């Protein structure tokens, strides 16, 4: 059991680090004397590295032992954090962020695959609820912590606080982490890696350029043209990547085994997860801009709007897991997806006169919907696969979640930015110019969010999870969960 907790802590630290950077970019631009378009590479390069690393984890988690993968991931993450801490300029800081991302990209697939392999089927909902806690609580704390640290200590302490925690996790992993499951000796296919780099890297990079790179100023027609060209090239390489995996998986040599998509339950779950990720990451990216520019809140107030709901979402993760174990996915997914869609529509009506308490309420409702969706989706999707496909299923799920998150950020911010710039060109104030864009962005997100509501009725609990009673004793250190 302590192995699972160690992985949860490591994943929490990695995601916390990932979410502290967005609010720090303006401060880093000033401190390093670099233009905004260059500073955005500190987040773009991180996303690109994650998009390249995650698809390879399906193979890596089968080729190497759990202990080897964990120690490698934490050493990369710790080394990257140290490089960022001591860097004196932009280039070294960028290198540190790339090294950090290489470790971060391994951590979530490792956590989910290990949990599927060692936790009994009848307890997976409860344990996946803890995964939901990690992926929701860290993004809630990250921006708030970043703002406090930047105002009181300076940007280096963003890494100075993370580094000791990462080193402790690394030390505990060296002492406690055991080898779980069996490793294979299949040779790695370097052609697949190259295709993966250009496929997923191209798509994510292209998406990140819309809206000026995570919400910056629009780069005009040249930037838009480059973005579409990069996405188009990424799609071509993706087709080649898929073709090669279909060929290699006949001999169990695929970098990413696509047989995971033979399961209808897995496919429906992944589609819902992609749309949920689009909604969550898009909202978390656009909402602070919208609240500050249109509604008129300051940075602290906009952070407080997001914080309560995210904390509630994290704390409810284990509760949702118990409900899933007892009643299955539909009990959670149907109301959860409805709450997400309703919240998106409510945000589309927000404006200058909207009271803060109503905004907080809307975000809490959305967070409840996300909490009710994550646990059954993780459990039902991976639980529908054969054991030898767990690592590939986790890799595919996290890859699509990453791409969908980038797409959500690009979609919502580009719609908002286009309306904002058009309105300002007509002489309107920022609130007047940005309001129509925000309304349109959240309304489109509402329409997209209808898809998960429909698919939620088709998600079933995997049969192996129905063979056991719902109420079980918590795994102990001597149980299979360790």
UniProtKB/TrEMBL annotation:
* Location of this chain's protein in the cell: Cell membrane
The main location is: membrane
Which chain regions cross the lipid bilayer?
A: 40-62, 69-92, 98-119, 131-149, 155-174, 186-206, 226-246, 266-291, 303-320, 332-350, 356-378, 399-419, 439-459
Q: Topology with regard to the membrane?
A: Multi-pass membrane protein
Establish whether keyword Cell membrane is in the entry: yes
Q: Name one GO cellular component term.
A: plasma membrane
> Keywords, A to Z?
Cell membrane, Membrane, Transmembrane, Transmembrane helix, Transport
Look up the domain of life of the source: Bacteria
Q: Name one GO molecular function term.
A: transmembrane transporter activity
Q: Which Pfam families match?
A: MFS_1
Instruction: Pinpoint the Major facilitator superfamily (MFS) profile domain residues.
Output: 3-464
Question: PROSITE patterns this protein is in?
Answer: MFS
> What family name appears in the similarity comment?
Belongs to the major facilitator superfamily. EmrB family.
State the name under which the record lists this protein.
Answer: Drug resistance transporter, EmrB/QacA subfamily
* Classification lineage: Bacteria, Bacillati, Actinomycetota, Actinomycetes, Micrococcales
